[in-house]
Write a structure and sequence with these properties.
Number of strands: 5
Strand order of the largest sheet: 1-4-5
Order of helices and strands: EEEHEE
Distance between the termini: 29 Å
Shape: globular
Radius of gyration: 12 Å
Number of helices: 1
Structural class: alpha+beta
């Protein structure tokens, strides 16, 4: 199983350097939902979901996340445009 942070509207995945990509192969795998949630809270990410990927595509699912109150600068710069 892999766990990605994904922009809900644009379907872009967060990379390890803080940039966004359309290619899930380039995305950061958080491996645990709690690690992804902590990262999202730390950097004040908004409009995102966790995307859980299993070996069988039919088993994949998303978990929408709320916005966090204390945004901090994102690593790597700008939000997706």
């Amino acid at each position: 199983m892999k766990i990605f942070i994904r922009d809900k509207a644009k379907k872009l995945y967060l990379r390890a350097n803080g940039e966004w990509t359309a290619d899930s192969k380039e995305a950061r795998d958080f491996r645990e939902g709690s690690a992804a949630i902590s990262h999202a809270a730390e950097y004040g990410l908004t409009g995102i979901e966790l995307y859980y990927v299993f070996s069988g595509k039919a088993d994949n699912f998303t978990l929408p996340l709320q916005s966090f109150d204390k945004p901090r600068p994102r690593p790597g710069g700008k939000p997706p445009e």
